[in-house]
Amino acid sequence: MHAEQVADFNSSWAGMVPVDDTALAVTDTGGPGPSVVYLNGQFASQRYWRRVIAELGGGYRHITYDMRARGRSGRSAAAASFEAHVRDVGAVLTARGVDRPLLVGWSYGAPVALHWAVRNPERVLGVVSVDGAYPYDFAYAEERIRRLWRRSRWLLPLLSTMGMAGKMSAEQHAKSNIELNEIYAALDPVFDSVTFPVRYVVATGANLGGGRDEMESMRASLDPVLARNPNIKVSAKVAGNHGNMLRKDFRAVADAVRELAGTARSRGRQNR
Q1: What is the pLDDT of residues 156-185, one digit of tens each?
Q2: Could you give the CA distance from residue 184 to residue 97 in angstroms, rounded to a whole number?
Q3: What is the pTM of this model?
Protein backbone atom coordinates (compact mmCIF):
# COMPACT_ATOMS: atom_id res chain seq x y z
CA MET A 1 0.00 0.00 0.00
CA HIS A 2 1.38 3.43 -0.95
CA ALA A 3 1.85 6.01 1.79
CA GLU A 4 -0.91 8.24 0.40
CA GLN A 5 -3.34 5.30 0.56
CA VAL A 6 -2.81 4.56 4.26
CA ALA A 7 -5.89 5.44 6.30
CA ASP A 8 -5.42 8.15 8.92
CA PHE A 9 -7.24 6.71 11.92
CA ASN A 10 -6.43 9.79 14.01
CA SER A 11 -8.81 11.87 11.89
CA SER A 12 -12.60 11.84 12.10
CA TRP A 13 -14.38 9.75 9.46
CA ALA A 14 -17.92 8.77 8.54
CA GLY A 15 -18.89 6.39 5.76
CA MET A 16 -20.03 2.91 4.79
CA VAL A 17 -18.17 -0.30 5.65
CA PRO A 18 -19.05 -3.16 3.25
CA VAL A 19 -19.84 -6.50 4.86
CA ASP A 20 -21.47 -9.56 3.27
CA ASP A 21 -24.55 -8.44 1.32
CA THR A 22 -24.77 -4.97 2.86
CA ALA A 23 -22.87 -1.97 4.19
CA LEU A 24 -22.78 -0.54 7.70
CA ALA A 25 -22.96 3.20 8.39
CA VAL A 26 -19.98 3.96 10.66
CA THR A 27 -18.84 7.13 12.43
CA ASP A 28 -15.32 7.39 13.90
CA THR A 29 -14.16 10.50 15.77
CA GLY A 30 -10.51 9.43 15.46
CA GLY A 31 -7.91 10.51 17.97
CA PRO A 32 -5.17 8.92 20.08
CA GLY A 33 -7.26 8.18 23.20
CA PRO A 34 -8.71 4.80 24.20
CA SER A 35 -11.09 3.45 21.56
CA VAL A 36 -14.70 3.02 22.64
CA VAL A 37 -17.04 1.12 20.30
CA TYR A 38 -20.76 1.52 20.95
CA LEU A 39 -23.25 -1.25 20.10
CA ASN A 40 -26.86 -0.18 19.73
CA GLY A 41 -30.12 -1.44 21.08
CA GLN A 42 -31.91 -4.01 18.94
CA PHE A 43 -33.57 -1.60 16.50
CA ALA A 44 -31.87 1.65 17.53
CA SER A 45 -29.38 3.80 15.63
CA GLN A 46 -26.02 5.25 16.57
CA ARG A 47 -27.51 8.66 17.37
CA TYR A 48 -28.68 7.32 20.74
CA TRP A 49 -25.08 7.56 22.03
CA ARG A 50 -24.58 11.28 21.45
CA ARG A 51 -25.03 12.30 25.10
CA VAL A 52 -22.63 9.64 26.38
CA ILE A 53 -20.04 10.67 23.79
CA ALA A 54 -20.40 14.36 24.63
CA GLU A 55 -20.02 13.58 28.35
CA LEU A 56 -16.82 11.57 27.79
CA GLY A 57 -15.40 14.21 25.45
CA GLY A 58 -12.32 14.26 23.27
CA GLY A 59 -10.10 12.13 25.49
CA TYR A 60 -11.51 9.02 23.81
CA ARG A 61 -11.83 7.76 20.25
CA HIS A 62 -15.56 7.13 19.76
CA ILE A 63 -16.83 4.67 17.13
CA THR A 64 -20.54 4.18 16.50
CA TYR A 65 -22.35 2.29 13.76
CA ASP A 66 -25.80 1.20 12.67
CA MET A 67 -26.41 -2.54 12.60
CA ARG A 68 -27.68 -4.25 9.46
CA ALA A 69 -31.05 -2.87 8.32
CA ARG A 70 -31.02 -0.25 11.07
CA GLY A 71 -30.45 3.48 10.82
CA ARG A 72 -28.50 4.38 7.68
CA SER A 73 -27.12 0.86 7.11
CA GLY A 74 -28.34 -1.24 4.21
CA ARG A 75 -30.84 -4.07 4.24
CA SER A 76 -29.49 -7.60 4.64
CA ALA A 77 -30.78 -11.15 4.41
CA ALA A 78 -29.13 -11.76 7.80
CA ALA A 79 -30.59 -8.66 9.48
CA ALA A 80 -32.33 -10.77 12.15
CA SER A 81 -29.28 -12.95 12.92
CA PHE A 82 -27.48 -12.48 16.23
CA GLU A 83 -24.39 -14.24 14.90
CA ALA A 84 -24.21 -11.86 11.94
CA HIS A 85 -24.19 -8.90 14.32
CA VAL A 86 -21.43 -10.50 16.41
CA ARG A 87 -19.30 -10.97 13.27
CA ASP A 88 -19.93 -7.37 12.23
CA VAL A 89 -18.15 -6.11 15.36
CA GLY A 90 -14.91 -7.59 14.05
CA ALA A 91 -15.56 -6.22 10.56
CA VAL A 92 -15.93 -2.67 11.90
CA LEU A 93 -12.82 -2.96 14.09
CA THR A 94 -10.75 -4.21 11.18
CA ALA A 95 -12.06 -1.58 8.78
CA ARG A 96 -11.23 1.23 11.22
CA GLY A 97 -7.94 -0.21 12.46
CA VAL A 98 -9.10 -0.49 16.06
CA ASP A 99 -6.93 -2.40 18.51
CA ARG A 100 -8.26 -3.54 21.90
CA PRO A 101 -11.31 -1.30 22.34
CA LEU A 102 -13.74 -0.89 25.16
CA LEU A 103 -17.10 -2.25 23.97
CA VAL A 104 -20.22 -0.51 25.27
CA GLY A 105 -23.51 -2.24 24.48
CA TRP A 106 -27.01 -1.13 25.33
CA SER A 107 -29.81 -3.74 25.47
CA TYR A 108 -29.31 -6.01 22.40
CA GLY A 109 -25.83 -4.57 21.96
CA ALA A 110 -24.75 -5.86 25.39
CA PRO A 111 -24.87 -9.61 24.58
CA VAL A 112 -23.38 -8.86 21.15
CA ALA A 113 -20.45 -7.15 22.88
CA LEU A 114 -20.12 -9.92 25.47
CA HIS A 115 -20.14 -12.73 22.92
CA TRP A 116 -17.58 -11.00 20.70
CA ALA A 117 -15.30 -10.24 23.66
CA VAL A 118 -15.42 -13.80 25.06
CA ARG A 119 -14.45 -15.14 21.63
CA ASN A 120 -11.68 -12.55 21.27
CA PRO A 121 -10.43 -11.82 24.82
CA GLU A 122 -6.98 -10.76 23.63
CA ARG A 123 -8.55 -8.08 21.42
CA VAL A 124 -10.70 -6.27 23.99
CA LEU A 125 -10.04 -4.14 27.09
CA GLY A 126 -13.46 -4.74 28.59
CA VAL A 127 -17.22 -4.46 28.20
CA VAL A 128 -19.81 -2.05 29.60
CA SER A 129 -23.29 -3.58 29.58
CA VAL A 130 -26.05 -0.98 29.64
CA ASP A 131 -29.08 -2.87 31.00
CA GLY A 132 -28.53 -5.90 28.79
CA ALA A 133 -27.00 -9.41 28.77
CA TYR A 134 -28.90 -10.95 31.69
CA PRO A 135 -29.07 -14.77 32.05
CA TYR A 136 -32.87 -14.87 32.07
CA ASP A 137 -35.19 -17.26 30.26
CA PHE A 138 -37.97 -15.45 28.36
CA ALA A 139 -39.04 -18.61 26.49
CA TYR A 140 -42.63 -18.22 27.68
CA ALA A 141 -42.92 -14.92 25.79
CA GLU A 142 -42.54 -16.25 22.23
CA GLU A 143 -46.21 -16.01 21.23
CA ARG A 144 -46.50 -12.60 22.87
CA ILE A 145 -43.58 -11.39 20.74
CA ARG A 146 -45.05 -12.69 17.50
CA ARG A 147 -48.41 -11.09 18.30
CA LEU A 148 -46.77 -7.74 19.11
CA TRP A 149 -44.92 -7.54 15.80
CA ARG A 150 -47.90 -8.75 13.76
CA ARG A 151 -50.00 -5.97 15.24
CA SER A 152 -47.26 -3.41 14.56
CA ARG A 153 -46.53 -4.40 10.95
CA TRP A 154 -48.31 -1.38 9.44
CA LEU A 155 -46.30 0.97 11.63
CA LEU A 156 -42.86 -0.51 10.88
CA PRO A 157 -41.79 2.11 8.29
CA LEU A 158 -42.58 4.90 10.74
CA LEU A 159 -41.04 3.08 13.71
CA SER A 160 -37.89 2.54 11.66
CA THR A 161 -37.39 6.29 11.25
CA MET A 162 -37.78 6.66 15.04
CA GLY A 163 -35.13 4.07 15.88
CA MET A 164 -37.75 1.65 17.22
CA ALA A 165 -37.72 -0.86 14.35
CA GLY A 166 -35.48 -2.04 11.55
CA LYS A 167 -35.92 -2.15 7.79
CA MET A 168 -37.28 -5.65 8.20
CA SER A 169 -40.55 -7.57 8.03
CA ALA A 170 -42.70 -8.21 11.08
CA GLU A 171 -41.59 -11.84 10.99
CA GLN A 172 -37.92 -10.83 10.96
CA HIS A 173 -38.49 -8.56 13.95
CA ALA A 174 -40.16 -11.39 15.84
CA LYS A 175 -37.40 -13.83 14.88
CA SER A 176 -34.76 -11.41 16.14
CA ASN A 177 -36.57 -10.97 19.49
CA ILE A 178 -37.12 -14.69 19.97
CA GLU A 179 -33.50 -15.51 19.14
CA LEU A 180 -32.33 -12.86 21.61
CA ASN A 181 -34.36 -14.55 24.34
CA GLU A 182 -32.60 -17.82 23.51
CA ILE A 183 -29.23 -16.04 23.72
CA TYR A 184 -30.11 -14.66 27.16
CA ALA A 185 -31.17 -18.07 28.44
CA ALA A 186 -27.80 -19.54 27.38
CA LEU A 187 -25.52 -16.83 28.82
CA ASP A 188 -24.27 -18.66 31.93
CA PRO A 189 -21.39 -20.48 30.16
CA VAL A 190 -20.46 -17.20 28.46
CA PHE A 191 -20.16 -15.45 31.82
CA ASP A 192 -17.93 -18.27 33.09
CA SER A 193 -15.52 -17.52 30.22
CA VAL A 194 -15.15 -13.82 31.09
CA THR A 195 -11.53 -13.03 32.00
CA PHE A 196 -11.67 -9.28 31.27
CA PRO A 197 -13.47 -6.54 33.23
CA VAL A 198 -17.21 -6.17 32.65
CA ARG A 199 -19.25 -3.37 34.20
CA TYR A 200 -23.06 -3.17 34.31
CA VAL A 201 -25.21 -0.06 34.39
CA VAL A 202 -28.57 -1.38 35.57
CA ALA A 203 -31.87 0.42 34.98
CA THR A 204 -35.09 0.18 36.96
CA GLY A 205 -38.71 -0.05 35.98
CA ALA A 206 -40.54 -1.45 32.99
CA ASN A 207 -39.81 -1.56 29.28
CA LEU A 208 -41.82 -1.64 26.08
CA GLY A 209 -43.02 -5.23 25.97
CA GLY A 210 -41.96 -6.03 29.54
CA GLY A 211 -43.56 -5.07 32.88
CA ARG A 212 -41.74 -3.84 35.98
CA ASP A 213 -41.84 -7.18 37.83
CA GLU A 214 -40.63 -9.10 34.79
CA MET A 215 -37.77 -6.65 34.17
CA GLU A 216 -36.70 -6.72 37.82
CA SER A 217 -36.69 -10.55 37.78
CA MET A 218 -34.47 -10.38 34.71
CA ARG A 219 -32.04 -8.00 36.43
CA ALA A 220 -31.96 -10.16 39.58
CA SER A 221 -30.77 -13.11 37.46
CA LEU A 222 -27.36 -11.39 37.33
CA ASP A 223 -26.78 -11.79 41.10
CA PRO A 224 -25.35 -15.35 40.98
CA VAL A 225 -23.02 -14.28 38.16
CA LEU A 226 -21.67 -11.40 40.25
CA ALA A 227 -21.11 -13.79 43.16
CA ARG A 228 -18.99 -16.26 41.18
CA ASN A 229 -17.01 -14.12 38.73
CA PRO A 230 -15.09 -11.17 40.25
CA ASN A 231 -14.40 -9.73 36.79
CA ILE A 232 -18.09 -8.80 36.49
CA LYS A 233 -19.43 -5.93 38.62
CA VAL A 234 -22.28 -3.44 38.73
CA SER A 235 -21.00 0.08 38.22
CA ALA A 236 -24.34 1.80 38.91
CA LYS A 237 -28.06 1.20 39.32
CA VAL A 238 -29.92 4.19 37.90
CA ALA A 239 -33.42 5.62 38.18
CA GLY A 240 -34.11 5.65 34.43
CA ASN A 241 -35.97 2.80 32.79
CA HIS A 242 -34.59 0.59 30.03
CA GLY A 243 -35.82 2.76 27.18
CA ASN A 244 -34.74 6.20 28.37
CA MET A 245 -31.50 5.56 30.26
CA LEU A 246 -29.17 6.75 27.48
CA ARG A 247 -31.06 10.04 27.60
CA LYS A 248 -31.49 10.39 31.36
CA ASP A 249 -28.56 8.42 32.80
CA PHE A 250 -25.83 9.04 30.23
CA ARG A 251 -23.47 10.29 32.95
CA ALA A 252 -23.63 6.93 34.73
CA VAL A 253 -22.79 5.17 31.45
CA ALA A 254 -19.87 7.56 30.87
CA ASP A 255 -18.66 6.94 34.43
CA ALA A 256 -18.68 3.18 33.78
CA VAL A 257 -16.53 3.72 30.69
CA ARG A 258 -14.08 5.82 32.72
CA GLU A 259 -14.02 3.17 35.46
CA LEU A 260 -13.33 0.45 32.94
CA ALA A 261 -10.62 2.48 31.20
CA GLY A 262 -8.95 3.01 34.58
CA THR A 263 -9.18 -0.71 35.38
CA ALA A 264 -7.63 -1.56 32.01
CA ARG A 265 -4.75 0.86 32.60
CA SER A 266 -4.11 -0.66 36.03
CA ARG A 267 -4.04 -4.16 34.57
CA GLY A 268 -1.64 -2.99 31.89
CA ARG A 269 0.79 -1.63 34.49
CA GLN A 270 0.58 -4.86 36.52
CA ASN A 271 1.39 -6.95 33.43
CA ARG A 272 4.56 -5.02 32.57
Answers
A1: 999 888 888 999 999 999 999 999 999 999
A2: 30
A3: 0.93
